[in-house]
Amino acid sequence: MKYIDNSNIDPYFNLAAEEYFLRHKNDEYFILWRDEPCVIVGKNQNTLSEIDMDYIETNNVKVVRRQTGGGAVFHDLGNLNYTFIVKDDGKSFNDFERFCKPIIGVLKTLGVKAEFSGRNDLLIDGKKISGTAQCKYKNRVMHHGTLLFSSDIVNLSGALKPKKIKFQDKAVKSVISRITNISEHLDSKIDVLAFKNKIFDYILKSEKDAEVMPLTQDEIDEIEKIKKSKYETWAWNFGSSPKYDFYNEGKFTGGTIELTLKVEKGIITDIKIFGDFFGVKDVKEIEDLLKGTEHKKEEIKNAINNVNIYEYFARITMEEFISLF
């Protein structure tokens, strides 16, 4: 098994790296990596229904879709991520506990008793420290997981707490769990990088023929191509969401507005605007302008930027109208 110490903290790059080593290489790998603040959503999730977009935009939190299923998770530099990529022996896929055993072993050496629970979680004293996910490509299996070491729990809950907007879809919903940081359970204090080294040493000793492999420039170049064509694109991160219905309402000085959308592949296919507002023009003109637009505030604003919003919604500003989306 080859060990890759990936020091890059760009989530777009790191998820692209996983895809590269899963799909374009034949060796088995173990990767440790961290991300700057971001939300990583599951492959089958409706991105917008998992996040608080206002919080995301205000705090410059990146949002990225991964290859594996499961729920949305928050990453920051206090969170350590690990990835196993192995040949499928016919038993690996869906055997989450097998891949969690080395992590449990590392924690045991630090005096922390962790246990595998449910489908894919690691717990300390009944609180979640790790969620894991898997996918399969041809005869290869990728298993990856989070390890909450000294993560900012406030940011985690803020980024993953969607506002009370009604989404109706068949996408996978994230389960809110009681969580804790590993660092809170250690007798002797160490930082996340020291913890990373502990895992690294444990894997090297327990895996036969393990060798350390730095990323080569050729590998970095190939990963960058995948990053640019897929992982940093709106089409993958938002447009790949399952189709859904979206509803929101707002009360403003000029009256109330109710909004219903039908969205498919991130594109608004139908929109209806209702309310007790006053206007001199028919809101159907606004509806027609927004059909075919990405369900993204910036794109919605661009689509109606040249209209006088007051002619449709008296005493309601463009910013107030856009906030409904």
TrEMBL record:
Transmembrane segments: none annotated. Keywords: ATP-binding, Ligase, Nucleotide-binding. Pathway: Protein modification; protein lipoylation via exogenous pathway; protein N(6)-(lipoyl)lysine from lipoate: step 2/2; Protein modification; protein lipoylation via exogenous pathway; protein N(6)-(lipoyl)lysine from lipoate: step 1/2. GO terms for cellular component: cytoplasm. InterPro entries: aa-tRNA-synth_II/BPL/LPL (IPR045864), BPL_LPL_catalytic (IPR004143), Lipoate_protein_ligase_C (IPR019491), LipoylTrfase_LipoateP_Ligase (IPR004562). GO terms for molecular function: ATP binding; lipoate-protein ligase activity; lipoyltransferase activity. It catalyses: L-lysyl-[lipoyl-carrier protein] + (R)-lipoate + ATP = N(6)-[(R)-lipoyl]-L-lysyl-[lipoyl-carrier protein] + AMP + diphosphate + H(+). The keyword 4Fe-4S does not apply. It is an enzyme of class 6 (ligase). The keyword Nucleotide-binding applies. Its EC number is 6.3.1.20. PROSITE patterns: BPL_LPL_CATALYTIC. One of its GO terms (biological process) is protein lipoylation. NCBIfam families: lipoyltrans (TIGR00545). PANTHER family: LIPOATE-PROTEIN LIGASE, LIPOYLTRANSFERASE 1, MITOCHONDRIAL. This is lipoate--protein ligase. It comes from Clostridium botulinum.
